[in-house]
Amino acid sequence: MIDNNKIIIYGGTGHYGNKVVKKLVDKGSLVKVVSRNYEKARRKFGDNIEIIEGDVLNRDFIVESLKDVKAIVICLSAGNRKQIRQMKQIEQDAVLTIFEEAKKAGIKRLVYMSGYEIKKQLLLDLNVLEFGEIKLEIESKIFQSDFNWTILGNAPSSEIFFTFVRNGKMVVPGGGLKAIPSISPEDVGEITAQTVLRDDLNGKRIKLTGPNAFTFPQVAKLFSELTGKKVKHIKIPLFVFNMVSLIILPFNPFVRFLYKSLKLLNNFPSDMAENVPEDHKLLRKLFDYEPVSLDMEIRRRIKENKL
Ligand SMILES: NC(=O)c1ccc[n+]([C@@H]2O[C@H](COP(=O)([O-])OP(=O)(O)OC[C@H]3O[C@@H](n4cnc5c(N)ncnc54)[C@H](OP(=O)(O)O)[C@@H]3O)[C@@H](O)[C@H]2O)c1
Questions:
Q1: Which residues' Cβ are closer than 6 Å to ligand 1?
Q2: Which of 75, 93, 95, 162 is the pocket-test mutation for ligand 1 (most atoms within 8 Å of CB)?
Q3: Ligand 1 center to residue 224 CA distance, Å?
Q4: Atom 23 of ligand 1, nearest CA residue
């Protein structure tokens, strides 16, 4: 008997993906995690899930990975120093191959992780089109497909506010003076797990965010209040980053990618930020979960002596 009962997670070892895997396992689902490194994935998840080692750049591997699968979650990313040059092949070409092979295998349910809200005109105005064009291309292919699909527009992880803090200082290129949405990876995991298990979210694009948008100075203030130690917000000019990233572009394109993400972050549209509480309310209506707020994330790190 053919038993297509597994949920496959491409990118299941990643920042958001590993939370999706854990939440699905907690809910008793049969999960298959794709990773290029079996041992690393095994250490992360222990013995009770299936791990399939391989590279999505290989079509035969994709075909093999889709056996016994009933639903697909895609949270692949090549946005790191080592893989940035292969971003199009991994995030676009391989994802389209997954779609083709999934269709051939008769798999219907698809959940795709994207960016919060991708506005082409904004990307063009800021000259950072390459930052979102792959996601736009994939989304347009999904809209035209006959998958039972849901797109999740993820806000940046709340981790973003912690990465700029060292020794009582929050040093932010461009200052981070515009309010941005953010979300706890725990919430992304829970919502994504619920999404893939539901059948009533076909054709929906849902924005995933925590309850409020924050500027970096606001978060520095929150850190100071909750830790009882002053965290000083310091703005460094973004143009320095721009120049450095251009000079080293031939050797290290990742810094250019970081610059573009920082440019976007520093120009996050106010109307989108103002809508964050509404977007969050909608999420609370759609899903049964207790959000992990930024306060809670800060308190957890204080408890674990990480702040
Ligand atoms: N993190 C954020 O703040 C954020 C914000 C907004 C949207 N998003 C979106 O959320 C999604 C997930 O992002 P993330 O930050 O969680 O990603 P991540 O931590 O960088 O993880 C990337 C994942 O992709 C897998 N991967 C990369 N290349 C692969 C290949 N050639 N073959 C097989 N697997 C490969 C990696 O697996 P192995 O290394 O195990 O092979 C890893 O599990 C992306 O679509 C991203 O754009 C993220």
A1: 11-17, 34-37, 41, 55-57, 75-80, 83, 90, 113, 115, 154, 156-157
A2: 75
A3: 32
A4: 11
Superfamily of domain 6-155+185-209+274-292: NAD(P)-binding Rossmann-like Domain (3.40.50.720)
Per-residue pLDDT of the chain (307 residues), as tens digits, is 456 799 999 999 999 999 999 999 999 999 999 999 999 999 999 987 999 999 999 999 999 999 999 999 999 999 999 999 999 999 999 999 999 999 999 999 999 999 999 999 999 999 999 889 999 999 999 999 999 999 999 999 999 999 999 999 999 999 999 999 999 999 999 999 999 999 999 999 999 999 999 999 999 999 999 999 999 999 999 998 899 999 998 888 999 999 999 999 999 999 999 999 999 999 999 999 999 999 999 999 888 887 7
* Token digits of residue 82: 């080592």
Element (H, E) at 98: helix 94-104
* Interstrand relation of 165-166 and 169-173 (parallel, antiparallel or unpaired): antiparallel
| Ligand 1: nearest atom to the Cα of 41 | 40
Domain boundaries, the chain: 6-155+185-209+274-292
Q: Which residues of 74-101 are buried (b: 16+ CB within 10 A; e: fewer)?
A: bbbbbeeeeebeebeebbbebbebbbeb
Q: What is the pTM of this model?
A: 0.97
To test the ligand 1 pocket, which listed residue (8, 10, 16) has its Cβ within 8 A of the most ligand atoms?
Answer: 16
